Amino acid sequence: VFTADPYTVTQDDVNAGNITNNVTADGNKPDGSAVLQASDTYVIDATNPDVTLCNDGGITIVKAATSNASGCVSEGDQIVYTFTVNNTGEVSISDIVIMDDLLGGNITASLTLAGDTNANNILDPTETWVFTADPYTVTQDDVNAGNITNNVTADGNKPDGSAVLQASDTYVIDAKNPDVTLCNDGGINLVKTGVFNNENANNCTEIDETITYTFEVTNTGNVSIENIIITDSLLDNATPSAAIILINGDVNQNNQLDPTETWIYNATYLITQADIDATEVFNTATVTGNIVVDGSNVTSTSETTTELIKDITPPDTSNCEVLDETIECNGPDNETIATDWNNANITELENCATDECDNNFTVTSDFDFANLISTCGQGGTITVTYTLTDATGNSSTFTATLTLEDTTPPDLTICTEIVDETMECNGEDNEAIATD
């Protein structure tokens, strides 16, 4: 019985699927002639009951990721995926194929490989291969979906050409992933501004002139927002109500406020007398929406005060011809004469005075006949101050004086007893005769 030194099995032996050993024996007979040579073949393979050659083929793949973001990843950030492939069997595996639908299907040719220590393009049992894919750019759809789910598979062939059992791995990037966290912050901001429109360019605020309101709605988060609604009690309750209209901003026309978008709305409000009296218009608007990832609500409120042009100019009486007047007095009718004069002046001022912003001014006077200053008998003077006040309280005054004057001599037409007369003089009695 011959015993040989131990033989060390090589990977080539395992990959071949068998170790076939041919042995011969020969010698010489006593006469020196050769005996017939003897030989034997011994095969070690997977079916040998004494020494069984392992030939299992197995493969695993584990996917990992890193990103270039300093925090969570959002649209435009890049993710680098790596695939760690191990040979878990005893035979080498060739023709490794990596499939990843997210990255484009069969990506084997585009991957960067590390770990093929003998550079034979065969995954040996002693090797761990690490593939690195080209960077993947995160889309807004990824963020809106709330996760980036990536399925990868690896397969290959054993030395006998049969396929190894396919290996797969699923890698999910979401808000809970500690390595690469997907952003899912939702935020919205509303900025409302108002501009008064002086339509007739008279530097006054008038009823039914307008304020143009602009609403800027911005997504301050990293997920899209849908169901955008703006409410504004001033505009909603106006008569007529003022519609809030989207002007522009929905760039991709998907009815979602994306993180890259600012939506602009406009509305036109008609000014009321109450607004003019207040000299400003204050109101509050609120925007609401829903985050597309989970439907949660976001909201923002904005207040604005629009200053109106304040009327500080009183009514103008420069074109009025209400003058001092002298009227013949008429005894018991003097008060009526004075009252009529005063009323005529009020009418004249209402017609001749003007107001730059508002012709709805009122005219009042401090007329009182008891204020007559008598100069002679029932004649005299009375000075009246007229006050013109517009709707915003600006006022101007105008003063006029009425003089009631007696310029008419006594009427002698009814004196019939007064006649010329010739009388005989009587010397010393002439003076008495003339006096009588």
TrEMBL record:
<protein>
    <recommendedName>
        <fullName>DUF7507 domain-containing protein</fullName>
    </recommendedName>
</protein>
<feature type="domain" description="DUF7507">
    <location>
        <begin position="187"/>
        <end position="300"/>
    </location>
</feature>
<dbReference type="InterPro" id="IPR047589">
    <property type="entry name" value="DUF11_rpt"/>
</dbReference>
<dbReference type="InterPro" id="IPR013783">
    <property type="entry name" value="Ig-like_fold"/>
</dbReference>
<dbReference type="InterPro" id="IPR055354">
    <property type="entry name" value="DUF7507"/>
</dbReference>
<dbReference type="Pfam" id="PF24346">
    <property type="entry name" value="DUF7507"/>
</dbReference>
<feature type="domain" description="DUF7507">
    <location>
        <begin position="58"/>
        <end position="164"/>
    </location>
</feature>
